[in-house]
Each structure stands twice: as structure tokens, then as C-alpha cells.
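User: Hi! I'm working on a homework problem where we have to compare a predicted structure to a textbook description. Could you give me the structure for the chain below?
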Amino acid sequence: MNKNTDAILRNVKETVAASGALSCGDTVIVGVSGGPDSVALLRAFFVLRHELGLSLHVAHFNHNWRKSAAMDERFVRRLAGQWGLPCACGRMPGRFAPAATAREERGRAQRLQFFQRLAKKINARAIMLGHTRDDLVETVLMHILRGSGLQGMRGMLPHRRIQGVYLIRPLLGVRKKDLLAYLKRNGIRYRQDPTNRHDHFLRNRIRLELLPLLEKRYNPGIRGALANMADTAGLDYDYLEEQAKKIFGRMAKRAASSSKKNSNAVRFNRAAFTRQAEAVKRMLIRLALERLQGNMNRLTLAHMRAIEDALSPTAVDSLVHLPGHLRVRVDKTGLEITRSGNSSDSSE
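Assistant: Happy to help. Predicted C-alpha cells:
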């Protein structure tokens, strides 16, 4: 077996083992777009399926953004059939909608929701996604450009759990060029997404323009440096989150909100909350939001600072509105975060 092939399969096995999510006999969903990354992921799991003791189920989500999308779906169905694997396909409503950045984000959310529904239907333990080290590096740099903090500098996580299902990225330590060589060596065909060359996407501009410039003019090893930074940031964030969870467990009170329009709330004692370090305060707010709505979508630094202003010694009975029908009320004795009962904003 080729050395690069060994490295790819080893990465898959190590990431799966590190997640602690799977046992022999489990069913896993492999998300396949038809592109080289996801096809290589499917191939690796097909090779390892008996060794890992896993049943595979292919899933494809047709975003319906371009005319070739139907051909991508047929390609994935045919590939799954050739390898004797079950395949389920979902589709975004509408035809050939322009793939603007906001629409792309909604598309990713709908794809994840489709995968989660399928996982529940077939009792799958995990969803495998084909992101590579190149994707990780691009994500970290994109987050830096947007002014992200420690959380964003982690980039993509190799594994996490959402609504009882694990999301695992077994190729996050593998370079794309190694995957392409792996596919070529095994004579495996794949589809090319023409939108990967469109320069109106920030990620594409980072991949096609900024990263090559940084490599040429500033640091030939920039990709490795960013990947290492993501690893370090992830360790730091995990430690901070772990400590904050312990404090959260002691301080946070879950109760029905005093407002009839809100179904639930998380409340902190104001004096105890303000005694915490600034980094811990922000993490406690994040944990409360996750408890109430399952994610922290669209929460910005401006929102966090507005909450901090409401906690200043001179502020009394302040109210801060957050995205997703969330609001923070600060009074003399406490800080209460509530979520409207009619909110359905739970996208990832």
C-alpha cells in the first residue's frame, strides 16, 4: 500500500477513535457531494468498513444552484450503487438560485438538517464530512479576517455532537493534494464544482488569491502555521470551556421566565457573575445561549459588549436584544437570558 494511502487511512482511523463515538455495528452516514474530498472520504470508509465494523449509508444534498447539480446527484447515486451502498438524496427547493454567500450559508444549514433527519430515520450514530486540512486553513484565515476570537481560530472541529448525533471530519489532517493523488492512483472519478473558481465568494478568494500571496511573499509554511494555530487555539478554548462549565453548573439557574411570552430562561446572580474573569463571563453567556437554543448563531462581539455594558455598576434594569428571539435582562440582583417560545431558529 502506498505511503500516502497509509497516511489517509490512518488519519481516518485516528479521528474516528479520538471521537469516542462509534462502536462495532454502528451505522454512519457519509456525506458525498461528488467532489474529490467527499469521494475520497467514501473510498476510505469503504476500504475500512470491515476493520471498523461500520455500516455505511451515503447521503447527498442537491443545493440546486446550477444546472450540473442534477448530474452531481446522479453521479453520487451511481457511485453508491457500484459499491453496493444505500444512498439517500435531499434537495433544496427552487431552481438554479444564485449562490450568494448568505444563500450558501443557508444551504449548508439545510444540508446539515437533512443529514440529521436521515440519521434519526436510519438510527445512524455519526455523520462523516469530507473537510480537509486545506478547508481548515481557509476557515481559520477567513475567521481572522472577520475579527474572530479564540473560538473562531479553532477553525473546524474534528468531531462534535449535535442533537445526539456526532459530526466527524476524518480528513481534517489530510492535504487536498494527497487526496487527489489517492483518487488518481486508484482510478476513482469525481465531479468538479465550477463555483469553486468564482471570486465573489470570500473562501474562494482566500484559496485562490490570499493564501498563494502569503506563501510567496511572507511565509512559505503559512498553511502549516495556521493549522498549528488552530490546534493550539482549540486546546486553549477547550480548557476555558471546561472550567466555565463547572462554574455554570454551580451558578446558572434554569427557570420559567417571568415574561409570559418566554418559555424558559437561564439566570445568574449578578454579584457572583460580575466576580468572574472577563473570559469566563463571556463563556458563561455562550453556554447559556447554547442551553436555550442549541447554538450561538449570529452572536457578535457587539452583542457581547452590549451585555457587558448592561452589567456596568451604573446600569440598572437594562435589556439587550439578541438574534434568534433571545434577550438579556439585567436587574439589581441578576442577569437573565430568555428565549421566546415561538422561536424556531436552530440552524447550524
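For your comparison, note the following. Residues 342-348 have pLDDT under 50 and may be disordered. The two ends are 39 Å apart (CA to CA). Good luck with the assignment!
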